[in-house]
Amino acid sequence: MPKKKSKSTRVVKKVGGQPRDLLVSVPVPTGRGRTLLLGLSLKAKLVALIVLALLVAFGLWKKDWFVAAVVNGRPIMRWQLDKALVKQYGAQTLDGMINQDIAEQEVARQGISVTGKEVDDRINEISSTMPKGMTLDQALQIQGLDKAEFRNQVRLQLAIDKILASKTVVTDKEIDDYMASNAAQFKNVSSAEARVTARKAIEQQKGSEAFSAWFASLKQKAQVYKFI
Asked: Domain residues of the chain, as ranges?
């Protein structure tokens, strides 16, 4: 049997007492299927064009968010770069971020504070140990760190030093023993200077051992879930 043609009806709605064409064609279904065709008004089309223009303008303004490079007219997309970096360095970088967050949470939990002067003093101390011909800014640039990130790292290290201070106390006997074991190192050095050097070396050794034990305990207790 031949299929019956569906009849269309025009839907008109009164708005504010006046009839307004909704530009909707509603076929009256007879038999199988039902369709609903929605037309766009001129206002809706204008809004769509404005949104599209804004998206294009934003893409040109922030093109580095989408395109990392262009090679002979062919773009390398930002997501491609991100994917490659995550694949090559993602695990190592993520572990570093996790470790830093674990330490920062413990510092906050214990209420340890570090003043800006303490940070400045430590940075000046580090600057004084730079090799001849190299500044601290140059060293940071080589490591890919900006000053703000470096200051945060210094602040965190100083806070950890305060937590572990009781475990890095050095006695006079330890200094004497160290100097005796490393006599050749202090052959042409004054006794006072030798003792200062010995104290720093012992503090660094004790600090490293204390930090390893402290952080291993924190990491064992931390609930960490990785998704990459």
From this structure: 112-221
